TrEMBL record:
Domain of life: Bacteria
InterPro entries from the UniProt entry: aa-tRNA-synth_I_CS, Glu/Gln-tRNA-synth, Glu/Gln-tRNA-synth_Ib_cat-dom, GluQ/Sye, Rossmann-like_a/b/a_fold
Organism: Roseinatronobacter monicus
The keyword Nucleotide-binding belongs to this UniProt entry's keyword annotation: yes
Family annotation (Gene3D superfamilies): HUPs
Family of the protein in this entry: Belongs to the class-I aminoacyl-tRNA synthetase family.
Protein name: Glutamyl-Q tRNA(Asp) synthetase
Lineage of the organism: Bacteria, Pseudomonadati, Pseudomonadota, Alphaproteobacteria, Rhodobacterales
The keyword Transport is assigned to this record: no
A single GO cellular-component term on record: cytosol
Glutamyl/glutaminyl-tRNA synthetase class Ib catalytic domain residues: 8-109, 181-268
UniProt record, GO biological process: glutamyl-tRNA aminoacylation
Annotated Pfam families: tRNA-synt_1c
Length: 282
Protein backbone atom coordinates (compact mmCIF):
# COMPACT_ATOMS: atom_id res chain seq x y z
CA UNK A 1 0.00 0.00 0.00
CA UNK A 2 1.60 3.35 -1.02
CA UNK A 3 1.88 5.84 1.87
CA UNK A 4 -0.78 8.16 0.34
CA UNK A 5 -3.46 5.48 0.70
CA UNK A 6 -2.37 4.20 4.07
CA UNK A 7 -4.76 4.32 7.03
CA UNK A 8 -3.22 3.61 10.44
CA UNK A 9 -4.45 3.92 13.99
CA UNK A 10 -3.36 4.27 17.58
CA UNK A 11 -5.63 2.25 19.89
CA UNK A 12 -4.89 2.94 23.56
CA UNK A 13 -6.85 1.54 26.50
CA UNK A 14 -7.61 4.29 29.05
CA UNK A 15 -6.49 2.24 32.05
CA UNK A 16 -3.61 4.47 33.11
CA UNK A 17 -1.53 7.46 32.07
CA UNK A 18 0.16 7.42 28.65
CA UNK A 19 3.87 6.76 28.93
CA UNK A 20 6.81 6.90 26.55
CA UNK A 21 5.90 3.51 25.06
CA UNK A 22 2.47 4.84 24.06
CA UNK A 23 3.98 8.02 22.68
CA UNK A 24 6.27 5.89 20.51
CA UNK A 25 3.35 3.76 19.27
CA UNK A 26 1.27 6.85 18.46
CA UNK A 27 4.11 8.66 16.71
CA UNK A 28 5.05 5.58 14.64
CA UNK A 29 1.41 5.16 13.58
CA UNK A 30 1.15 8.80 12.54
CA UNK A 31 4.50 8.70 10.70
CA UNK A 32 3.43 5.60 8.77
CA UNK A 33 0.33 7.54 7.64
CA UNK A 34 2.13 10.78 6.94
CA UNK A 35 0.51 11.08 3.53
CA UNK A 36 -2.57 9.06 4.47
CA UNK A 37 -4.88 9.04 7.50
CA UNK A 38 -4.02 8.52 11.15
CA UNK A 39 -7.00 7.49 13.30
CA UNK A 40 -7.50 7.16 17.02
CA UNK A 41 -9.56 4.47 18.74
CA UNK A 42 -10.25 4.18 22.45
CA UNK A 43 -10.19 0.54 23.54
CA UNK A 44 -12.45 0.72 26.58
CA UNK A 45 -14.26 -2.62 26.59
CA UNK A 46 -12.94 -3.45 30.05
CA UNK A 47 -15.15 -1.00 31.91
CA UNK A 48 -13.85 -2.23 35.26
CA UNK A 49 -10.37 -0.84 34.44
CA UNK A 50 -11.05 2.12 32.14
CA UNK A 51 -11.47 5.66 33.49
CA UNK A 52 -12.78 8.76 31.72
CA UNK A 53 -10.03 10.87 33.29
CA UNK A 54 -7.39 8.68 31.61
CA UNK A 55 -9.24 9.06 28.32
CA UNK A 56 -9.23 12.86 28.67
CA UNK A 57 -5.52 12.75 29.47
CA UNK A 58 -4.86 10.64 26.34
CA UNK A 59 -6.41 13.32 24.10
CA UNK A 60 -4.49 16.05 25.85
CA UNK A 61 -1.12 14.27 25.76
CA UNK A 62 -1.50 13.27 22.10
CA UNK A 63 -2.42 16.83 21.07
CA UNK A 64 0.53 18.14 23.02
CA UNK A 65 2.76 15.68 21.11
CA UNK A 66 1.52 17.38 17.95
CA UNK A 67 -0.83 14.64 16.75
CA UNK A 68 -4.19 15.33 15.11
CA UNK A 69 -6.92 12.90 14.09
CA UNK A 70 -10.41 13.00 12.63
CA UNK A 71 -13.39 13.25 15.01
CA UNK A 72 -15.46 11.58 16.27
CA UNK A 73 -13.05 9.09 17.81
CA UNK A 74 -14.22 5.49 17.78
CA UNK A 75 -14.82 4.17 21.30
CA UNK A 76 -15.19 0.43 21.71
CA UNK A 77 -17.70 0.75 24.55
CA UNK A 78 -20.23 2.02 21.97
CA UNK A 79 -19.64 -0.87 19.57
CA UNK A 80 -21.22 -3.84 21.35
CA UNK A 81 -23.89 -4.39 18.63
CA UNK A 82 -21.12 -4.78 16.02
CA UNK A 83 -19.31 -7.33 18.19
CA UNK A 84 -22.57 -9.20 18.78
CA UNK A 85 -23.20 -9.35 15.02
CA UNK A 86 -19.70 -10.79 14.48
CA UNK A 87 -20.34 -13.43 17.16
CA UNK A 88 -23.61 -14.36 15.47
CA UNK A 89 -21.80 -14.83 12.20
CA UNK A 90 -19.20 -17.07 13.87
CA UNK A 91 -22.00 -19.02 15.58
CA UNK A 92 -23.67 -19.56 12.19
CA UNK A 93 -20.38 -21.00 10.92
CA UNK A 94 -20.33 -23.39 13.89
CA UNK A 95 -16.91 -22.24 15.09
CA UNK A 96 -17.71 -20.90 18.58
CA UNK A 97 -19.06 -22.58 21.70
CA UNK A 98 -20.13 -21.53 25.21
CA UNK A 99 -17.73 -22.12 28.07
CA UNK A 100 -18.38 -21.91 31.80
CA UNK A 101 -14.85 -22.80 32.95
CA UNK A 102 -13.16 -20.59 35.49
CA UNK A 103 -9.37 -20.17 35.51
CA UNK A 104 -9.28 -22.62 38.44
CA UNK A 105 -11.27 -25.19 36.39
CA UNK A 106 -8.78 -24.82 33.53
CA UNK A 107 -5.77 -25.25 35.79
CA UNK A 108 -7.38 -28.28 37.44
CA UNK A 109 -8.18 -29.88 34.07
CA UNK A 110 -4.62 -29.28 32.88
CA UNK A 111 -3.11 -30.84 35.98
CA UNK A 112 -5.21 -34.03 35.70
CA UNK A 113 -2.90 -36.97 34.88
CA UNK A 114 -4.59 -37.92 31.60
CA UNK A 115 -4.55 -34.37 30.24
CA UNK A 116 -2.06 -32.85 27.84
CA UNK A 117 0.82 -30.80 29.24
CA UNK A 118 -0.11 -27.17 29.95
CA UNK A 119 1.09 -24.91 27.12
CA UNK A 120 1.50 -21.17 27.61
CA UNK A 121 0.84 -19.55 24.25
CA UNK A 122 0.47 -15.92 23.16
CA UNK A 123 -3.04 -15.89 24.64
CA UNK A 124 -2.14 -17.55 27.95
CA UNK A 125 -2.82 -21.15 28.91
CA UNK A 126 -4.08 -23.22 26.00
CA UNK A 127 -7.63 -24.28 26.85
CA UNK A 128 -7.97 -28.03 27.45
CA UNK A 129 -11.31 -28.24 25.61
CA UNK A 130 -13.60 -29.16 28.51
CA UNK A 131 -16.69 -27.34 27.08
CA UNK A 132 -15.86 -27.82 23.38
CA UNK A 133 -18.78 -30.15 22.64
CA UNK A 134 -21.39 -27.76 24.10
CA UNK A 135 -23.75 -26.37 21.43
CA UNK A 136 -24.46 -22.63 21.17
CA UNK A 137 -28.17 -23.29 21.77
CA UNK A 138 -27.24 -24.18 25.34
CA UNK A 139 -25.29 -20.98 26.00
CA UNK A 140 -26.12 -19.47 29.40
CA UNK A 141 -26.04 -15.71 30.08
CA UNK A 142 -22.89 -16.09 32.19
CA UNK A 143 -20.93 -18.17 29.69
CA UNK A 144 -17.87 -17.01 27.81
CA UNK A 145 -17.70 -17.86 24.09
CA UNK A 146 -14.62 -19.60 22.71
CA UNK A 147 -13.35 -20.13 19.19
CA UNK A 148 -13.09 -23.79 18.24
CA UNK A 149 -9.63 -23.39 16.72
CA UNK A 150 -9.59 -26.64 14.78
CA UNK A 151 -13.06 -26.05 13.30
CA UNK A 152 -12.17 -22.42 12.51
CA UNK A 153 -8.98 -23.35 10.66
CA UNK A 154 -10.75 -26.04 8.67
CA UNK A 155 -13.14 -23.32 7.39
CA UNK A 156 -10.35 -21.35 5.77
CA UNK A 157 -7.76 -22.12 3.12
CA UNK A 158 -4.08 -21.33 3.74
CA UNK A 159 -3.70 -17.94 5.44
CA UNK A 160 -0.83 -15.50 5.70
CA UNK A 161 -0.18 -11.86 6.39
CA UNK A 162 2.28 -9.21 5.30
CA UNK A 163 4.54 -7.62 7.89
CA UNK A 164 5.94 -4.23 6.91
CA UNK A 165 7.88 -3.59 10.14
CA UNK A 166 11.64 -3.97 10.56
CA UNK A 167 11.62 -6.79 13.13
CA UNK A 168 10.26 -9.73 11.12
CA UNK A 169 10.21 -11.35 7.69
CA UNK A 170 7.75 -9.85 5.22
CA UNK A 171 5.46 -12.86 4.77
CA UNK A 172 3.89 -14.88 7.59
CA UNK A 173 1.96 -18.03 6.73
CA UNK A 174 -0.25 -19.39 9.54
CA UNK A 175 0.71 -22.90 10.58
CA UNK A 176 -2.53 -24.66 11.61
CA UNK A 177 -0.73 -27.15 13.89
CA UNK A 178 1.06 -24.32 15.69
CA UNK A 179 -2.26 -22.48 16.10
CA UNK A 180 -3.95 -25.54 17.61
CA UNK A 181 -1.06 -26.38 19.94
CA UNK A 182 0.00 -22.88 21.02
CA UNK A 183 -3.09 -20.70 20.74
CA UNK A 184 -6.01 -23.08 20.97
CA UNK A 185 -9.61 -22.14 21.73
CA UNK A 186 -9.27 -18.45 22.59
CA UNK A 187 -12.05 -16.54 24.34
CA UNK A 188 -13.90 -14.24 21.91
CA UNK A 189 -16.56 -13.06 24.33
CA UNK A 190 -15.79 -12.65 27.99
CA UNK A 191 -18.69 -13.08 30.36
CA UNK A 192 -18.21 -9.60 31.86
CA UNK A 193 -17.75 -7.78 28.53
CA UNK A 194 -19.69 -9.54 25.77
CA UNK A 195 -16.56 -9.30 23.62
CA UNK A 196 -12.79 -9.64 23.86
CA UNK A 197 -9.69 -7.78 22.74
CA UNK A 198 -9.19 -10.09 19.74
CA UNK A 199 -12.75 -9.83 18.43
CA UNK A 200 -13.10 -6.07 18.96
CA UNK A 201 -9.80 -5.19 17.37
CA UNK A 202 -10.60 -7.18 14.23
CA UNK A 203 -14.13 -5.82 13.87
CA UNK A 204 -13.00 -2.24 14.49
CA UNK A 205 -9.89 -2.26 12.29
CA UNK A 206 -12.23 -3.29 9.46
CA UNK A 207 -14.90 -0.72 10.41
CA UNK A 208 -12.27 2.05 10.41
CA UNK A 209 -10.82 0.89 7.08
CA UNK A 210 -7.36 0.39 8.61
CA UNK A 211 -4.87 -0.71 5.92
CA UNK A 212 -1.82 -1.03 8.18
CA UNK A 213 -1.99 -2.03 11.84
CA UNK A 214 0.96 -0.52 13.70
CA UNK A 215 1.55 -1.63 17.29
CA UNK A 216 4.12 -3.01 19.72
CA UNK A 217 5.88 -6.27 19.02
CA UNK A 218 4.27 -7.86 22.10
CA UNK A 219 1.17 -8.26 19.90
CA UNK A 220 2.96 -9.88 16.95
CA UNK A 221 1.61 -13.37 17.68
CA UNK A 222 -1.89 -12.02 18.32
CA UNK A 223 -1.89 -11.10 14.62
CA UNK A 224 -2.21 -14.78 13.76
CA UNK A 225 -5.50 -14.90 15.67
CA UNK A 226 -6.65 -11.66 14.04
CA UNK A 227 -5.91 -12.87 10.52
CA UNK A 228 -7.93 -16.03 11.15
CA UNK A 229 -10.87 -13.99 12.48
CA UNK A 230 -10.71 -11.67 9.45
CA UNK A 231 -10.96 -14.69 7.16
CA UNK A 232 -13.93 -16.17 9.08
CA UNK A 233 -15.74 -12.82 9.17
CA UNK A 234 -14.86 -12.05 5.51
CA UNK A 235 -13.16 -8.79 6.45
CA UNK A 236 -10.29 -7.19 4.53
CA UNK A 237 -6.80 -8.03 5.81
CA UNK A 238 -4.53 -5.10 6.65
CA UNK A 239 -0.75 -5.38 6.67
CA UNK A 240 1.02 -5.28 10.03
CA UNK A 241 3.89 -3.15 11.30
CA UNK A 242 5.11 -4.30 14.72
CA UNK A 243 7.56 -1.91 16.30
CA UNK A 244 10.12 -2.36 19.06
CA UNK A 245 9.01 -1.94 22.66
CA UNK A 246 10.31 0.98 24.67
CA UNK A 247 12.16 -0.19 27.77
CA UNK A 248 13.27 1.52 30.95
CA UNK A 249 16.93 1.96 31.90
CA UNK A 250 17.09 -1.55 33.36
CA UNK A 251 15.73 -3.03 30.11
CA UNK A 252 12.23 -3.74 31.45
CA UNK A 253 9.27 -2.97 29.25
CA UNK A 254 7.42 0.18 30.34
CA UNK A 255 4.11 -0.45 32.03
CA UNK A 256 1.28 1.88 32.92
CA UNK A 257 2.36 1.89 36.53
CA UNK A 258 5.76 3.41 35.60
CA UNK A 259 4.56 6.91 36.30
CA UNK A 260 8.09 8.28 36.03
CA UNK A 261 7.83 7.77 32.27
CA UNK A 262 4.29 9.14 32.03
CA UNK A 263 3.97 11.86 29.39
CA UNK A 264 2.10 14.03 31.89
CA UNK A 265 5.02 13.73 34.32
CA UNK A 266 7.59 14.59 31.62
CA UNK A 267 5.46 17.58 30.64
CA UNK A 268 5.33 18.69 34.27
CA UNK A 269 9.13 18.51 34.24
CA UNK A 270 9.00 20.86 31.23
CA UNK A 271 10.12 18.43 28.56
CA UNK A 272 9.01 19.58 25.09
CA UNK A 273 7.30 17.40 22.49
CA UNK A 274 10.55 17.61 20.55
CA UNK A 275 12.47 16.29 23.60
CA UNK A 276 10.12 13.29 23.70
CA UNK A 277 10.71 12.56 20.00
CA UNK A 278 14.46 12.74 20.59
CA UNK A 279 14.24 10.49 23.67
CA UNK A 280 12.44 7.97 21.49
CA UNK A 281 14.94 8.22 18.65
CA UNK A 282 12.35 9.61 16.23
N1 LIG B 1 -5.43 -1.49 23.13
C1 LIG B 1 -4.19 -2.19 23.00
C2 LIG B 1 -3.19 -1.67 24.01
O1 LIG B 1 -3.39 -0.61 24.58
C3 LIG B 1 -3.59 -2.06 21.61
C4 LIG B 1 -4.21 -2.98 20.66
C5 LIG B 1 -3.70 -2.95 19.24
O2 LIG B 1 -3.00 -2.01 18.85
O3 LIG B 1 -4.06 -3.85 18.51
O4 LIG B 1 -2.21 -2.34 24.27
Amino acid sequence: MPPEGRITRFAPSPTGPLHLGHAYAALVASQRAVAGRFLLRIEDIDQSRCRTEFEAQIYEDLRWLGLRWPEPVMRQSTRLPAYRAALEKLAALGVIYPCSCTRADIRAALSAPQEMAAVHGPDGLVYPGTCRARPMEQALPDDALRLNMRAALSHCGPLSFIETGPLHDALHPLDPDWMIENVGDVVLSRRDMGTSYHLSVVVDDAAQGITEVTRGDDLFEASFIHVLLQALLELPRPSYYHHKLIRDDSGKRLAKRDNARAIAQLRAEEASAQDIRLMLGL
